[in-house]
Specification:
Elements: H1 2-19, E1 22-28, E2 31-33, E3 36-39, E4 44-49, E5 76-80, E6 85-91, E7 94-103
Parallel strand pairs: 1-4, 3-7
Antiparallel strand pairs: 1-2, 4-5, 6-7
């Protein structure tokens, strides 16, 4: 019985990984575009800095006590969301830049 449970658990996790998607957010003119996204648990979000000269970061203050590193034009930041919830974020250097990831 334990072996069957373990096999089913591994199968479910494998299926979730296979079905996971990548969702993209661009940073343009000091805005996250789109500002709010809805993804499924297990999906990965990739933010791309599309500015010509400006640096940014993506800071989930409720999840990360320390501000993450900044990234420059054409660089990316990514995060996978394993659990459902609503996650607000901002750009540390530019706190008026805000966004939200809703995980189903």
């Amino acid at each position: 019985m334990k072996k069957l449970f373990l096999t089913l658990t591994v199968l479910v996790i494998s299926l979730q990984s296979a079905l996971a998607e990548t969702v993209y957010v661009d940073i343009v003119k000091f805005e996250f575009t789109p500002q709010q996204i809805t993804v499924n648990a297990g999906d990965t979000v990739i933010w791309t800095n599309r500015e010509k000269r400006q640096y940014h970061n993506v800071w989930f203050k409720a999840l990360d006590s320390e501000e993450p590193d900044i990234f420059f034009p054409d660089e990316t930041y990514q995060r996978t969301f394993p659990e459902p919830g609503s996650f607000d974020y901002e750009c540390g250097p530019h706190p008026k830049m805000t966004g939200k990831v809703i995980v189903q």
